[in-house]
Amino acid sequence: MEAVVRTTSFQHYLDQLYARFLDVRDGDVANYIPELAHVDADAFGMALVTVDGHVYQAGDSRTPFSIQSISKAFTYGIALEDQGPARVAEKIDVEPSGEAFNSISLEPKTGRPRNPMINAGAIVATSLVNGEDAAARLERILAKFEHYAGRPLGINPAIYESERSTGHRNRAIAHLLRNYEILEGDPEEPLDAYFRQCAIEVTARDLALMGATLANDGVNPITAVRALPSPLVPNVLAVMATCGMYDYSGNWIFQVGMPAKSGVGGGVVAVLPGQFGLAVYSPRLDAKGNSVRGIAVCESVSRDFGMHML
Ligand code: DON
Q: What confidence tier does 98 reach under pLDDT thresholds 50, 70, 90?
C-alpha cells in the first residue's frame, strides 16, 4: 500500500475519483442550522496526507467550511489529556448508541451520555477542557486544533450565531445534563463553547492533516508538533471507529474499516493508523447527517487499495 501512496499515480487516482463523483447530486445540505443552508451545496474537495507529510488534493480542497461534529473527536482528546481517562469516563461512556447525533442518549440513572460523539457527550467533553471560563476553554480548543491543522484557524461568526440562536435542542440537552450534575455550574457556558467549537472553519486539506496527525501517533507530520499524547491516540480512534458516523457507524466500519468522523457541515475525515488521514468536503448529506460523496470517496479508497483495517 505504501508504495502506491508514495507514487504520483495516487494523485492520478484521486483526480479520477473526483471526476467520477463530481456530478453526484444526491442528498441535501443541513438546514436545521439556518446559516448552513447558504453554503455551496455542490462544493466537492478531497485531500489525503500521509504520515510522512505527502499531501494529495483534488477539487475544492482549500474551501473553508465549519468543522461541526468532527470537532467532537479532537475535543474529546483534549478532555482526556486535561482530566485523565478515568475522570472523563465518570462523565462520558464509550458505548455506541446506535442513535442519531442529536439523540438524548443518556444512561437512565446517572445521566451519563453514551459516548462523546453524540451532542450530549460532546457538550460534556467541551466542559472538561481546562480553562476558567468558556472563553479560556475555547482558546485552548482552538490552539489544540491549530496544532493538528498546522495553521491558524478561526470561527465563522455567522454560523456560530445561527446555531446559538436556534439550538434549542442542544440547550435542552445541556440543561438536562446539568440536572444530572454531569455538567457543573452554568450549562450555558460549555454550550456556548460547544457552539463556537462547531463553527471553527477548516478545509479538506486541514482535516486530512488533522487525521494524519492521529495516524502519526498524535504528531503533526508536517510541523512535527505533538497535538495529542501518544497513549491517548488509541482512545480517540476507538470512539471514532465505534461511534464516529452515528447510526451508520456499524455499516461504516463494515464497509470502509477505518476510524472516521463526519459533520453536518459536509466534512468527513478517515484515519488509517500508521498510514494517512483522508478528508472529503461535500455538503450534501444523507438522512443520517453524513456526507453522501464523503462516504462514496472513502468507500472507494478503502476498496481500491485494500485499506480495510480489519
Ligand atoms: O450540535 C449540532 O447539532 C451541530 N453543531 C453539529 C452536529 C453534527 O455535525 C452532526 N454531524 N453529522
A: confident
Model confidence pLDDT, tens digit, residues 171-223: 999 999 999 999 999 999 999 999 999 999 999 999 999 999 999 999 999 99
Cβ proximity of 236 and 70 under 8 Å: no
CA dihedral 38, 101, 192, 160 (to 10 degrees): -10
61 is catalytic: no
Distance from the CA of 9 to the center of ligand 1, in angstroms?
A: 35
68 Cα–ligand 1 center, Å: 5
170 lines ligand 1 (CB under 6 A): yes
Rg value, the chain, Cα: 18
CB atoms within 10 A of CB 304: 12
Question: Can you give the length of the chain in residues?
Answer: 310
Answer yes or no: 246 catalytic. yes
ipTM attached to this prediction: 0.96
Q: Which domains, and CATH codes, for the chain? A: 2-66+201-304 (3.40.710.10), 70-198 (3.40.710.10)
Active site residue 72: yes
From 31, 71, 101, the mutation candidate for ligand 1 (largest count of ligand atoms within 8 A of CB) is: 101
Strand partners, 291: 285
pTM for the model: 0.96
Residue 14 burial (10 A CB sphere; 0-12, 13-18, 19+) = buried
Distance of CA 252 to the CA centre of its chain: 15
d(CA 17, CA 288): 23
Residue in 97, 248, 264 to alter for ligand 1 test, most ligand atoms within 8 A of Cβ: 264
**Ligand 1: which atom is nearest the Cα of residue 70?**
9
